[in-house]
Structures are given as structure tokens and as C-alpha cells.
Protein: prolycopene isomerase
Amino acid sequence: MRKPAAFQSHLPLSSRYRFSHSPLACNPKVPAHLPSPPFYLAPLNAATTPQPQPITPRRNSNRQPTTRHVDVAIIGSGMGALTAAAELVATGATVAVLEKYLIPGGSAGSFKRPGYVFDVGASMIFGFGSQGTTNLLTKALKKVGRQLETIPDPVQVRYHLPEGLDVRVYREYERFLEELGSKFPHEREGIRRFYDACWSVFGSLNAMPLRSLEEPRYLLEVFAAHPVACLNLLRFIARNAGDVARQYIRDERVIRFIDMECFTFSVATADLSPMINAGMVFCDRHYGGVRYPKGGVGRIAEELVKGIEEREGSWVQFGARVTEVVFDEEGRACGVKLATGDVIRAKAVISNATRWDTFGDKGLVRGARVPQAEWKFRERYVKSPSFCSAHIAVRERDLQVEMTEAGGMDCHHIVLEDWDKFETARNGDGTLFVSIPTILDKSIAPEGMHILHVFTPSWMDEWSGLPPDEYAAKKAASLSKMVRRIETAFCGGLSKAIEFAEVGTPRTHRRFLGRSDGSYGPMARKRLSGLLSMPFNRTEVQGLYCVGDSTFPGQGLNATAFSGVSCGHRVAADLGLARRLPRRVDQFVSGLLGKTRLEL
Ligand SMILES: NC(=O)c1ccc[n+]([C@@H]2O[C@H](COP(=O)([O-])OP(=O)(O)OC[C@H]3O[C@@H](n4cnc5c(N)ncnc54)[C@H](O)[C@@H]3O)[C@@H](O)[C@H]2O)c1
Ligand SMILES: CC(C)=CCC/C(C)=C/C=C/C(C)=C/C=C/C(C)=C/C=C/C=C(C)/C=C/C=C(C)/C=C/C=C(\C)CCC=C(C)C
Structure:
């Protein structure tokens, strides 16, 4: 019932291509503008390529649906779900984590090919530091008695931007300021003051225990113990990074650079990116540092699953697609129903599906049960774009650059040739994200090989409705465009060095991650007051909570880990497993807090 045999070997990405020297003319599906010498991407033979497993086991008509009982039923096993589950089992609650796919982690999972481990989503990981309170991944693992070896990255990212702007964000803060300041000497002071403001946010967060902001007892305690830090956070919580940057910086080119910095975590410009999140990302990279978990990003989820399953009465179930939330006569969420017909009864339900997939006519809570607050959420936030991504295996000997950490290639890169295409470009012309995790961790590819994970924002409407041939051809064309851009920017010889590549599109992300339109997460529809209107974990449906990137504080692994920790804390308090104010006072104060935020 728990881990299916396919746990170690699965196929979350759709098309697979391999390098071939056959002339382009042999395959009419391959667009004529692929780079030369012949760069020809042929789908691997379907007979020899492992095919995707069915996402949901078929209902067996001879089997009677079962009902099981647990304290908390959790829909999905993304990082939000797993960190909430870890928090809950540590308080003594029993949990059932129900994942529709075959591996844990959602967009933070890893999938395997013979000899290779590929990360499903971004490989740039924050939250693995050893000190302070913001190292939420280290802490979540510790909660369930686990730890992971991580490899520190000396450079968070190298930007290859228009007008030859080439900036490395070094692990050392002063070195980064020197690097950026040397490109804009007249703005040295402003640059320092902006990033120092980020440190002020980070310092406040990193001074206090991070738990649920909708749990009044914790709020009172944290205010009493850290009044200055709390007031400082209140000062910034309603602000966006762009407002703060403009206070100190005049040169629009530096503002554009900060826009790009914000884009990497929020897929939006600085004007739409909460200052609290900017503070976290722009400082943790110099404090805990960016670190790669040895063996792949999916190791985090695998270890959390092991830790959760070690607790008596808790389990993680794969191939378990939840089709609806179940309610009692009073309209309180009291469990979930799976596609197999099985029911898991619970005192509380947590959804790690996006809000668009949780609520609405195709969601898990439908019709009149969808609360008003969810429609309000949609007035404020829209789905961000998805990505077109490629996982590429590359022969080191055929590259024209040195692929080592010391003096050679950096692990993470951002490429953009034209500022006009920065946030709005379609069809693969926008910002390109590239990670080469094998620079840090050689264990995830065979000797002499490297992994390139490349992705660029892409919208569902670019891909929907295409017949299979056109879909495949568009993927091949997208791959060749990404490869060409990387070759020009920093990695000569790439097209000739490719062993095989797999391309994913918004359709892939929707199918395998269950995310509406394959979206990366919510994005402010218009300028909002920082993080103030981002919903916490409780919903207006009694007994139902949300976790993950459509809850406070938004996208990112460390951000969803925070949402998981705070969700676990609030649920534990509601179940009487964590300290809280007397029930009536608790309900009154947290209700008031929720309402005030909704009106903002
Ligand atoms: N390097 C990084 O910082 C990094 C890397 C990877 C992911 N991320 C972040 O992770 C965030 C997403 O994490 P998340 O916690 O919100 O979740 P997620 O989208 O990663 O995972 C949700 C999980 O729920 C499952 N699911 C959805 N509907 C279901 C249903 N009906 N029944 C059963 N299972 C269902 C999906 O299969 C998936 O595994 C993104 O914002 C992304 O930024 C960051
Ligand atoms: C009550 C009220 C309202 C108030 C009071 C006051 C207070 C106390 C406050 C507090 C607050 C808090 C606690 C907050 C918290 C926050 C947090 C934790 C946050 C976090 C965040 C994080 C983030 C955002 C992250 C992100 C990241 C990301 C997204 C990443 C990504 C990556 C990628 C995409 C990659 C790229 C690159 C390449 C490849 C190159």
C-alpha cells in the first residue's frame, strides 16, 4: 500500500530526445532552423523508453472501497505538505500524506534515468544553513530525526544580462557588493543601503522562532520576547522590494537589475515582490548560503517521508489521487475521498494542491462550498506562467569550457539578451534559468557527464490544442532555442555535447504536478501591500487548511517550508496538541486578524 515498486524509477517528463547526426531532411517534424552542424533531436524509440505509469491506479471493481482513520489527511506531498506533516507527527498527531504521483516532493522531487538523477524543479536551494531560525529545511528534517549532506555553492547565481552586464552573486556579501558596485560606481551607496535594508528584514526573521502567524498565543509570546524585531517586520510586511529600492537608487539600470533579482523568486518585478521575501532570499544566500543536497533535491522529500513513516500510525501513500474533500453534516471538512473510492476520515484536512485546484468547479471543494474569500483571492492574485524546461545530459569532453567549480563554470546562471523581453516574452525568448548541479555533485551523473537543467517562463496557451506532431516539433524547436542561447552566453560546444534531453512544457507540469495551467504559483494581479493580503493556512471552510505556495509567504522551497511549519503549528493548536489561548479567545483573536487582513 505504501511505496509502489516504481518508486525509484519513473518518468515525470514527457518527450525524450537523443542526439543524432542524421540529416534534418530525414525528419519532417524537425524544424528547419535548428543549429548546424546537424543538431537533430529524435524522440527515443518508444519501445525502449520507459513509459509513464498511470497516475492513478484503476479502480478495481471487485474491491470494496475502504475507510481509514487518521488525525490529519494531507493532500499532496510537495514541500509544503511534507513540512506540515513533519511538524504534526512531532507533536504526536497521526497523518496520512496522499500523493497522486509516484514520488514525493512535487516540484521539489527528483526523477531517475539510468545513471542520472534529475531535479524536477529548480536546483537552487535555500534554508539549509546550520544557524539561526530561517534554516527551515534543516529544521524540518531534524524534527523527524533526519539530516542530509549538503554541498555549499560559492556563487548563488551568475547573471548574463543585456549590455554585457555580467554579475556574480558571491556567497560573501561584501564581495557581491563590490562586484555590483564596480558596474555602477555612482550607485555604490544606494546599492549598499538597499541590500542592508534586506538584511534588516532577514535579521529580524532570523532572531525569532518561526511559527504560525494566525496563532495568537505565539504572536503574543514572540512580540514579548522580540519586540524590536516584530515592529521592524511590521514596518516591512506591507511593502514591496521596488518601493524600498527606489528610496535609495536612482539609476534605472540598477532598478532593472533588482527587478531581475526579484524575478528569480517571484516571477515578477520588484514593484510586485514582497520586501519580506526579498529580505529572505537576498540575505540567506550570504548567511546559510545556497546549498545542494547530495544526491539531488528529491533527497529532501525522500528523507522527510522516511521520518514521517517511522511514526506509528502515520503513512505516505503514492498513486493516491484525492478527488474531493468530504464534509460532515455541519459542513466541516472531515476527510478526503480518493479516485479508488477509498475514504480517509480525519479531524483536519490540509490541501497542498494550489488554491485553483483546491477550490472551484474542477477542484476538491466545489459549488456553494467555495468560500467568498477564495473569490477575493482570485481578484488579487493570478496564476504566474509555467515553464518550458529541458533536462539535458551532456558529455564534458565535447564542451568548449571548463566545467569545474574552481575557476571554471558556475552552477546557476540567468541569461537575458534584451530587457524588453525580460518578463513578458513568450515562446522561449524571455529570461532563461540554467543550473548545472553536477558542478557541485558528481554523484548524480555518470563519470564524464554533466546535467543541465534549463527553464524559461512559458504559458499554457502557447502549447494547448497542438496535435501530437506539432507539440513534439514545438518542443524540439524550444530545446534548440534554449541550447543556442546558452552556447552564445557561456557554454560553447553545448549542442554537440548533448547525449539526450527531455523537454517539459506547461502541459507536462499540469499533468505531473497537478498544478492548474502548470503555474509556478500566485502572482499579484496589481500592486499589493507586500505580503499583507497573502492568505495564511486556515480557510473559511471549517477543518480545511491550505499549505504550499498559494499561502503566505508564497513561492520557493524555504517559503513553502515556512507555510508547512506554520500550518502544522496551527492545526496542532486546533487539535489541542500545541499550546494555545483558551479556545474562545483564540477563535476571537485569530478571526479578527483574518478578517482585518481580508479587508486590506
Ligand atoms: N529551488 C527551489 O527553491 C525550489 C525547487 C522546487 C520547488 N520549489 C518551490 O516549491 C513550490 C511548490 O511547492 P508546494 O508545496 O506548493 O507544492 P508542489 O506543487 O511542489 O506539490 C504539490 C503536490 O501535490 C500533489 N497533488 C496535487 N493535487 C493532488 C490531488 N488531488 N491528490 C493527491 N496529490 C495531489 C502533486 O502531485 C504534487 O506532488 C513552488 O513555489 C516552487 O517555487 C522551489
Ligand atoms: C500578524 C502579522 C501580520 C505580523 C506580525 C509581525 C511578524 C511577527 C511577522 C513575521 C513574519 C514572518 C515570520 C515571515 C516569514 C517569511 C518567510 C519565511 C519568507 C520566506 C521566503 C522565501 C522565499 C521567497 C524563497 C524563494 C526562493 C525561490 C523562489 C527560489 C527559486 C529559485 C529558482 C527559480 C532558481 C532560479 C535560478 C537559476 C536556475 C539560475
Notes: Residues 1-15, 18-57 have pLDDT under 50 and may be disordered. Residues 5-53+386-458+464-504 form one domain. The pocket of lycopene (ligand 2) is lined by residues 122, 124, 126, 157, 205, 210, 213, 219, 222, 230, 233-234, 237, 264-265, 276-277, 280-281, 412-414, 433, 435, 553-556, 558-559, 562 (CB under 6 Å). The CA atoms of residues 12 and 492 lie 29 Å apart.
